[in-house]
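[Q] Does anyone have a clean structure-token version of this?
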Amino acid sequence: MSETKWTDEQQQAIDTRRCNLLVAAAAGSGKTAVLVERIIKIITNEENPVDIDKLLVVTFTNAAASEMRERIGDAISKKLDENPEDEHLQDQLVLLNKASITTIHSFCLEVIKSNFHKINLDPNFRIGDETECSLMKLEAIDEAFDILYEEQDEEFCYLVDCYAEKRGDSNLQNLILSIYSFVMASPYPKEWLIQSAEDFNIDENFDFATSKWAKAILETVKIQVEGVETSMAKAIEDVSGIEELETFIAKLKIEYEKIKDILDACDISWNEAYSKIATMQFENYAKGVKRIPKDAPAYVKEEKDKAKNTRDNAKKSIEKIKTSVFSKHYDDLKEEIKFLYPVVKSLSDVVLIFDKIYSQKKRDKGIIDFHDIEHFALQILTQTDENGDFLFDKDGKNIPSDIALEYREKFYEIFIDEYQDSNQVQEVILSTIAKQNEPNRFMVGDVKQSIYRFRQAKPEIFLQKYANYDTDLSSKYKKIMLYKNFRSRKEVVDSVNYIFEHIMSKNLGEIEYNEEEKLNLGASFEEVDDEKIILGGPTEIHLMEKKVEEAENPEKDEEESEDLDASQIEARMVGKIIRDIMRPNENGEIMQVFDKKSGEYRNIEYKDIVILLRATSAWAPVFAEELINMDIPTYADMGQGYFETMEIQVIMSFLKVIDNPMQDIALISVLRSPIYGFTPEDFIDIRTVDKKVSFYEAMRKYAGESIDLSISEEENSDDDKDIDEVIDQEIEKLSSTIITHIENEVDNQNIQDEIDDYYQNIDYSDFIYEDEEITYNDEIIYDQDYINYQVDSENQYDEEFNNQYSEEYMYHNQDDSIYNIDLETQDKNHQEEKTLSELDLKVRRFLDDLKELQEKSMYMSTDEFLWYIYTNSGYYAYCGALPGGSQRQANLRILFERAKQFEETSFKGIFNFINFISKLKKSNSDMGSAKTLGENANVVRIMSIHKSKGLEFPVVICSGMGKNFNNQDFRKSILYHHDLGYGPELVDYKRRISYPSIAKEALKSRINIENLSEEMRVLYVAFTRPKEKLIITGSSRDINKSITSWSNGIGLNQPISKYKILKGRSFLDWIMPSVLKHKDLENIREMAEVELDYIDSHPSKWEAKIWYKEDVILETKEDEEDKCVRDTLENLDIDKPSTSYYDKIKEKLDYKYKYEVSTEKPASISVTEIKKIQNSYEEEFTQDIFNTKINLKKPLFMQEKTEDKITGAEKGNLVHLIMELLDFNKINTIDEIKDQINTFIKKNIITEKQSTAINPYKNIEITNTIAFSAFADSSKFAEYISVCVRLFSCLYCSTSSSNFDAF
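[A] Here you go.
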């Protein structure tokens, strides 16, 4: 295999040493390969070889860390193949397993584990489960609010009055929790909270014009005014030279100059901008503008109207800016900020109180959460004072601790992958352990792919170094750019460059997309001579019009047409696009893709196609359903929407009903589900029984149960009873229940450990069984089905899951005879129920099940109980039979695992579990659906753009490009920002009105720009995923109107104005203005009757198509089948039996179902019915069983050996048998016990050899214990149970006296 050829820039990145090196690597530029090669060069350097464990390699995810370790291992192995005797390389393979190739959190965790004593942390600490931490947060916030309510803190009460809803303070609590999570991404959260509040504590010398708020507002205002200025200049240019519009043009120019003055003022100061905007007056076009002559050409009026429309829009924009941020006087702004100080101070105080309580709860339990990992590591690696506050040097940097200095000496170099996604805490940690005099950090990333700001990633960290680092290789702080793309075809690269050179800038995108930043083609794809093969091709844009035309016959169209929403329409359009890709076109041409594994081209498959969505929670299920209906195999990787899945909603409703059946909505949901199958007509019949009571009570009345809603006299009379008598009765009932339960459990559990030890040592290869035969040996019965219980499952996860929990939770392992029902017996049972209607049976079955489940919920753990519901109701199996069954069952298993984790917390019971899930949903902490798909499955994948980062696919369809951006954050009552602090609303709580403060307007402006920049980078990530072809789809309500809007104000050789981008509400609002002026979209311009100068020199290639709703209305399969059958029958000659259809028809008509007997068996059986059938079955056959002597064989491992030794398992069984048969009234002397044992021998119950395993002397000592007096005294019930258990243990351990002595 030939050596890899590196570009000059890649080689520099590999070879450069002794400096901080920032590698700006574009998408597909081979940055990971460069990083691996650099590591290999370092560890194999002949002059100064470095061990692999002297390098710290930090990646973004565990998967990336594993892949990096694997790549490095492969590279070392290849070097070893070249030089097998190299001992240093052999050592590297050994050291690789303990090398620090890890995520930042794993590294921090290692620091904490090694130095926990430095921060007084429990050495047995653990990382808290998400469920447990969420519950503790809820407890802590409740406690914090309770403390503040009790103290009647005035500022806190005002905070509650202003920002809590009328019915409670949950909104405010959620706000506190979100601020806490946000601020923990800062290295100094306490300082941020204090400083952000103190920013509002201003004095008389405060100058708003120099404040951070004024600067943030001016940034946005300047962009807006720039857009207005550009559009006005374009309008003047369009009407210039038209004599009939001279006076009109003069007015436009006057206004244009005023707007230009405002733009210049934005660069000077807040006061200048305020002055210019406040005094801005637009011209009166009713005076001084000549009318257009009647004989003037038509284009004159068209151009004037167009320019006037631009001018009117400019006026609206300036007026909006004026009213939103420049309407308040300077002194009013100062008073407003002072007024907000108590609010934000109280807000910070509450967060600090919550943090203190939450931290103490975590310490009490010995756990740390996700945020603690980084912050504890930072405390260990930096110096702090006696109060725990950080110490800084003269440059404002953290002073490293002794431990940090040790790490500096340990690591020769620090590698940081995906550096653009680092946050402030991670940056401080890594800079603290990095060398200072001789910098040793290698940072690689691409700021254009920084898409994790919502996780508090700070691309500004990367951008700051990118701006300050030098390209001079002699500098200690260098940067190298890698912009050759080795992933995509030329058509994809050109299209990406064309879009982003028009829309990405320093203001919006946070980097200028210029010649240095654009992608350069580095990949080479072989061409083929076959004209019938399509390779790659132009980038396609498919636009769907959502508007529905008015129908001529509304009633008819309403019946025939489908009610489709935007996602369904676009999904069907995508489905048709995929169909067209997968099959040959009208010319017989078919698309092929390059297969890396085979090194050849092959026909495209479904697995080569991926659909990328901005967010998957709402659209992905719709896309998956529509594509599957079109017979396109599809898998949707949904990160959210778990709690909205049908199966989870049904089970959660079931739990709510079991906890409290008075909840009508949950009850109706369960009854309507397949578990019980009630119909709307059934609900009507039940409700008509009594309309005033709850639906559950109506069901009970329907079933004939009496219901008394008032407190009965009998209940009141309980107060008159002697309290001791009541307690005694309750204890007796409870004791009876417990002893029954314990007796059942003791048999199965007490000797389980010893039996498990025995069975683990069995050689199962010695087993010999005969089919359909039961083997018998005195006290033990083995069933063929039991021995062969383990069966192959459909997939590996199911097999592991079932094996793990089969003994604990799978109660459906009943005797098969219960289900192999004799039909005559079944008919006999049903004869008794003939008088009951089907609804009666449904109601009785539900009430019986509910009673049983409520009883079981009292003593079963939540996870155990949940699995019992799955299996007992048959719902788990039902979900498996539905489309996407494996996915649905995996979702149910996730809920089971969540319940199991919940049980490990201090909270218990289904009520607390339901409450926790409800709060989890409200806090948007949704869980992603289970992953059940193999990597090589031949399906179309649907995933979010975020999950696609770092991946590549032959064909990428970017869908939902017309969906509006999410601006929900702006609706919060209080905004917050790392640099600008708080942005609260001004609230008049007495009148319940609020309006944005100047601080909130500032934060809104900055956050809006940052969010749009993030969205632009998300779009860049999506467009750089394809290797062969890029397809863009989107929808618009009115295509013609949208195209007109997109085409307004765009210049031929200019990028799209920042203002137009700032106003954009979707990706299409950015893409289409750029593409509309490309030469390849002539058909779209003609259709919308838009005249634009177009670009004909750019190398990118595009195709565009408009779709309408009628293009995607699908004929159902039933319609297609009916049509096919109708055509066949019309052409069928029934007089000719020799026709090819004759035999087929005869075969169909003569068909007999092979398993007809099984159709007479019920599809589901309730617990009550099972009990009846089992009792009837046992009564019928019990006598025959006892009268018939059965000679049953014993398995080889149970057959008597030549050795005299009795095994541990046999001893356990003997003890169990003796315990059942002993008469405890005749065990007062040794002789009595021996007589009973001899009786057992004579009756052939046990053998003489087996009797030697019983130690009768133990009984004499036991009879002197408290056991028998306890048996007579119910007050000693608990001690009696303990004695019985110990008695059992002593008999079992007859050969060891130490156990009894201890007892």
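[Q] Thanks! Anything notable?
[A] The chain has a mean pLDDT of 79.
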